[in-house]
Q: What sequence folds into this?
């Protein structure tokens, strides 16, 4: 149970009516934008990705979107950076990240990265050079056996929401001592676009949507405090509201990452800050320093983290037959319903932030 | 400061007087006053006394003397005024309860008056030296008219020490309370200079000091944990407490060990006359009080227990998890007093408090605090008194975190033993106290054990420190002149950190972190480190007139034990940490200067009191401090200077049908770290507001007597919002996670706090023996006062938005009923 859930339960139990409501809170932005670096480098074949962006600031200029000048506080991608990977203190020659989308840098290594080797990332932007702290790729990891169940529970204002609970039966590593595990869960599902009648009876294109079902759930294991080598334990690693995305195959890709102690500490702090509910038992939140620094100006604040991890990937999927609830087809064609009355996501796959018309190679393999 | 008085003299004691007039009973003797030879055998139950015979020649005056005690409290009564023939003689009983007055021979009408007790009227035929010992009875609440007055009419002007706030249990019960249960800490928060971090946190902040900088004493025994769950109620049942005295920074020399304030709670003694008690049921708890004589007029016992009754509320919930949950708080007090002889008594007190909370079969915590003390008080001579105390305390707490593979149960605690002896010599103008005090602390090992079958946690333990704190003190109270009074004191304290323990030393050119350990040394026993120092105390009062005084106070205080909490405010599961090689003691210098004046014969009090405190080695926390099972606690802490200053203004109405006060406090509390290293700095070593820095606070309390047996109360509280760190930007991490980026610590403030409470109490509703019915509304406006502001993702925009958490964000009506039984009065 999260601390937030506990806190709400406690005040309910006390018979008091603890209230949580949105307020306006005037803030001063920082004077200058800060660089955000987020990346994960594993021993899988890739591609590995580094995301570069910048926070808002008081002197941030507006940008033009669809012909209009727009000003908001969302991070903005950082483009035209040179991102290289270094191993054991030396650049991996001929290998660098390529910008595939604004702020998104991708690299598919020729050879997989190896455990036991120390890696770091160097980023050059606008005459400045940033480096992540070297991290040795861990060698220890556990094994996951995934399962899911469907339950009804209270989520926000819905007292009886249908949800999928994704669990892993973790087999702990045989070793005791220092190892640290984190789970990253991604989902991919087929989305039924609206099939409008047409003379050629052409079906809408495939729409495979990628997303993160439960990003605020940060599941961590600290091997240093455990004492059951090879033991088994069941952990909830994601919860997902059941909706129309479960009408067809709905995949969950679970990445068990064996990370360094530095990365574990970072994610512990992120978990604490992200789940902060302002309760009596919460620690005062603070800015989280990552593992990147400007080599010429160590005092410059750089946000984010570049992880070097050993990865084990497993997948599980649901089909419509697994879902014990009625699922409404929100994109079903209804004669007489106007085109503009359909949700944008029913009309075009590109309405989703991350989607493709191509099935991943593993879609039908499992 | 407030007492309920009767303007109607038809009290139970007056009825007794009418019954016993004309009877002649031997008076109890006056011990130790040798030159009053046995000239008169005055009758205690008779209100007419004869000393000598009128025939023959007589000197110009005779001496009338005696001792005044409280029948109900079982203790001497200082400040009882002696009125002769309708005029106040100027004589009052001293701190030992004795009076002495010279009168010409003749028949005199002598009345003994005290604010909170019914007066005793006597007719004295004084033709020889005489002794009259009197027992006064407490006044009943059932009054025709109500006046609220200081326990001494002008104590606020006369007392040399500024920043002293006093409340009796009776006054406390008149203040509207959460769930109808009167509470000492909630009552104190209506005083100027006293606040808290917010609803839901334990403890109080006095003049900008941390909660662990308060010395809390029960009958002079140290109390470590004093609040039930989330600070809604303290562990002190007001039915068994007599009064509370809060020293806001300027402590007499007999108090020490904390750098901020001292709260001295006096517990009641049981009745020595007859068995009696009361039982009460309210919205939040049920309680029972029984008291009576084991040996009449010799040995009495008092037992008070209180237990929450919210379980019925849990069972009404539809959620099965809530139905299966537990929430209990309880406290019990046992007091026994043995009057060994006249002027000698032995008191045994035991207090047990605790909370248990468990949500279904998941997260939970529990804590218990037990304290026992044995105290001797004796008057050894006309001017000498002796007090001695031994006490033992034990504090345990357990936290259960059942989540996942690392489900664990974490326990810690502290055990301590205390001894104190004080001898006092006093006459009319001079009082000298000397004493010794020692406390032996034994931290219990902190342990983490697996919880549940699925837990793979490795059991682990971290040893905790042991230490001894000792002090010698000397306190001099001198009436320099009629207009000037002085209290000068000196306390010398020493602290020793004892083995066994492991001492870590760190690389000199870097911060103290787990990665910069140079060496560690294990000690099996012995003294590992000592600290100590001189603690001068000074209080000076200069009367500008009979009703106006200026007061100046200074106190230096050392603190060798601190409460460690990585949360915004204190919680019941905080750790207690002793000073070590790497955690030096705190030291504070407290100054205050105030002007006090009364007007219209003490009907009105006006107070302006300024304070300033400088602290060294004050403790704050690093970002994301890891305090549990941390053998190197210094790596989680930041040390620095503290600074608190402000001014308190109060206007108080003491007399009349409508009474109360309004107080405004301006108070700042700031901290500055001093390290050269970023890991040990807060906000780059800039002065930073502390978590309990609230610059402005206004408290208003109004009480109105509603004839014939009701009392209406209204309180209003406003304060500036406390400091908070805020989200100035956000960013995404791989995984679609929105992460907030926070500002520097405490650079913003949550919305201001405002609350109005109301209560109405009626006595003798159903039972003539004595009962009371209380209706209350806490948070009359239902205002959603923010406890905190936090950020969470907005579902639509995926951006972080600010939200307010209001802990008590609704109107809280309450009703409680208490009925008395037994006793000797109808």
A:
């Amino acid at each position: 149970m999260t601390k937030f859930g506990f806190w709400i339960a406690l005040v309910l139990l006390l018979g008091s009516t603890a209230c949580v409501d949105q307020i306006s809170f005037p803030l001063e932005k920082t004077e200058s934008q800060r660089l955000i670096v987020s990346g994960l480098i594993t021993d899988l074949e890739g591609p590995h990705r580094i995301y570069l962006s910048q926070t808002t600031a008081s002197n941030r200029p507006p940008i033009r979107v669809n012909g209009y000048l727009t000003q908001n506080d969302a991070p903005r991608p950082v483009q035209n950076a040179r991102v290289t990977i270094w191993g054991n203190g030396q650049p991996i020659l001929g290998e660098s990240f390529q910008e595939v989308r604004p702020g998104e840098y991708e690299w598919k290594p020729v050879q997989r990265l190896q455990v036991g080797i120390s890696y770091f990332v160097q980023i050059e932007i606008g005459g400045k050079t940033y480096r992540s702290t070297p991290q040795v790729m861990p060698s220890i990891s556990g094994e996951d056996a995934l399962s899911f169940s469907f339950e009804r529970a209270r989520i926000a204002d819905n007292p009886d929401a249908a949800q999928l609970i994704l669990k892993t039966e973790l087999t702990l590593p045989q070793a005791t001592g220092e190892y640290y595990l984190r789970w990253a869960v991604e989902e991919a599902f087929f989305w039924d676009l609206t099939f409008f009648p047409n003379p050629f009876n052409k079906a809408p294109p495939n729409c495979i949507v990628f997303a993160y079902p439960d990003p605020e759930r940060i599941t961590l294991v600290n091997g240093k405090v455990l004492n059951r080598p090879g033991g088994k334990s069941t952990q909830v690693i994601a919860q997902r509201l059941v909706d129309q995305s479960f009408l067809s195959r709905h995949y969950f890709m679970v990445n068990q990452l064996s990370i360094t102690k530095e990365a574990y500490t970072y994610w512990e702090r992120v978990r604490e800050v992200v789940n902060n509910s302002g309760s009596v038992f919460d620690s005062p939140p603070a800015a989280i320093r990552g593992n990147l620094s400007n080599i010429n100006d160590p005092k410059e604040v750089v946000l984010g983290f570049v992880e070097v991890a050993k990865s084990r990937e497993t997948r599980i999927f649901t089909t419509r037959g697994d879902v014990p609830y009625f699922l409404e087809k929100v994109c079903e064609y209804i004669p007489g319903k106007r085109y503009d009355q359909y949700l944008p996501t029913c009309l075009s796959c590109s309405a989703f932030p991350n989607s493709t018309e191509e099935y991943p190679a593993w879609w039908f393999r499992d | 400061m407030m007492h309920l008085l009767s303007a109607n003299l038809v009290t139970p004691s007056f009825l007794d007087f009418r019954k016993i007039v004309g009877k002649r009973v031997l008076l109890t003797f006056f011990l130790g006053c040798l030159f009053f030879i046995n000239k008169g055998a005055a009758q205690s139950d008779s209100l007419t006394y004869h000393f000598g015979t009128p025939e023959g020649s007589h000197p110009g005056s005779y001496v009338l003397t005696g001792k005044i005690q409280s029948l109900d409290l079982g203790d001497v009564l200082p400040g009882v005024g002696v009125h002769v023939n309708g005029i106040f003689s100027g004589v009052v009983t001293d701190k030992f309860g004795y009076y002495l007055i010279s009168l010409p021979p003749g028949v005199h009408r002598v009345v003994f008056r005290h604010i909170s007790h019914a007066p005793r009227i006597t007719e004295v035929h004084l033709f020889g030296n005489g002794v009259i010992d009197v027992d006064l009875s407490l006044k009943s609440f059932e009054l025709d008219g109500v006046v609220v007055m200081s326990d001494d009419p002008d104590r606020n002007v006369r007392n040399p020490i500024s920043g002293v706030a006093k409340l009796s249990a009776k006054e406390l019960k008149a203040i509207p309370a959460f769930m109808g249960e009167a509470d000492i800490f909630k009552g104190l928060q209506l005083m100027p200079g006293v606040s808290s971090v917010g609803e839901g946190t334990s403890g109080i902040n006095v003049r900008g000091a941390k909660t662990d900088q308060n010395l809390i004493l029960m009958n002079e025994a140290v109390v470590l944990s004093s609040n039930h769950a989330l600070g809604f109620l303290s562990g002190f049942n007001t039915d068994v407490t007599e009064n509370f005295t809060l020293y806001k920074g300027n402590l007499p020399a007999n108090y020490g060990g904390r750098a901020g304030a001292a709260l001295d709670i006096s517990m009641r003694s049981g009745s020595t006359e007859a068995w009696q008690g009361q039982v009460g049921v309210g919205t939040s708890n049920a309680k029972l009080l029984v008291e009576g004589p084991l040996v009449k007029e010799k040995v009495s016992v008092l037992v008070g227990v209180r237990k929450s009754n919210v379980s019925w509320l849990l069972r009404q919930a539809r959620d099965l998890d809530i139905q299966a949950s537990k929430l209990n708080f309880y406290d019990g007090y046992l007091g026994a007093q043995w009057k060994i002889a006249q002027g000698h008594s032995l008191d045994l007190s035991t207090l047990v408090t605790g909370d248990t909370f468990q949500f279904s079969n998941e997260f939970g915590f529990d804590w218990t605090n037990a304290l026992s003390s044995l105290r001797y008080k004796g008057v050894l001579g006309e001017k000498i008194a002796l007090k001695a105390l031994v006490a033992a305390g034990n504090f345990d707490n357990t936290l259960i975190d059942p989540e996942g593979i690392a489900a664990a149960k974490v326990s810690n605690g502290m055990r301590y033993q205390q001894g104190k002896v004080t001898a006092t010599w006093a006459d009319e103008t001079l009082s000298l106290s000397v004493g010794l005090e020692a406390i032996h602390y034994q931290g219990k090992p902190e342990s983490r054990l697996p919880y549940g079958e699925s837990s793979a946690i490795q059991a682990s333990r971290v040893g905790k420190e042991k230490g001894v704190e000792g002090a010698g003190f000397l306190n001099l109270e001198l009436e320099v002149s009629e207009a000037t009074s002085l209290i000068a004191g000196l306390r010398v304290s020493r602290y020793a950190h004892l083995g066994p323990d492991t001492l870590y030393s760190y690389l000199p050119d870097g911060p103290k972190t787990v990665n910069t350990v140079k060496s560690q040394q294990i000690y099996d026993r012995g003294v590992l480190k000592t600290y100590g120092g001189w603690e001068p105390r000074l209080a000076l009062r200069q009367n500008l007139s009979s009703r106006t005084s200026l007061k100046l106070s200074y106190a230096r205080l050392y603190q060798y034990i601190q409460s460690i909490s990585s949360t915004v405010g204190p919680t019941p599961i905080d750790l207690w940490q002793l000073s070590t090689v790497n955690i030096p003691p705190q030291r504070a210098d407290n100054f205050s200067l105030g002007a006090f004046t009364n007007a219209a014969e003490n009907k009105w009090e006006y107070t302006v009191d300024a304070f300033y405190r400088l602290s060294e080695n004050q403790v704050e926390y690093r970002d994301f401090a890891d305090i549990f099972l941390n053998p190197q606690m210094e790596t989680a802490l930041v040390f620095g200077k503290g600074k608190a200053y402000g001014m308190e203004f109060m206007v108080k109405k003491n007399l009349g049908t409508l009474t109360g006060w309004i107080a405004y406090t301006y108070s700042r509390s700031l901290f500055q770290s001093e390290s050269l290293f970023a890991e040990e700095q807060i906000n780059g070593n800039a002065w930073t507001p502390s978590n309990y820095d609230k610059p402005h606070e206004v408290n208003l309390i109004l009480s109105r007597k509603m004839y014939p047996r009701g009392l209406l109360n209204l309180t209003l509280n406003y304060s500036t919002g406390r400091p908070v760190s805020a989200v100035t930007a956000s960013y995404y991490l791989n995984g679609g996670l929105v992460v907030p980026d926070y500002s520097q610590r405490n650079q913003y403030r949550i919305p201001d706090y405002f609350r109005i409470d109301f209560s109405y109490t009626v006595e003798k509703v159903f039972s003539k023996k004595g009962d009371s019915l209380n209706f209350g509304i806490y948070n009359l406006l239902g205002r959603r006062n923010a406890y905190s502001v936090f950020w969470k993702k907005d579902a639509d925009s995926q951006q972080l938005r600010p939200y307010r958490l209001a802990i008590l964000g609704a109107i809280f009506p309450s009703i409680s009923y208490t009925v008395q039984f037994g006793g000797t009065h109808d």
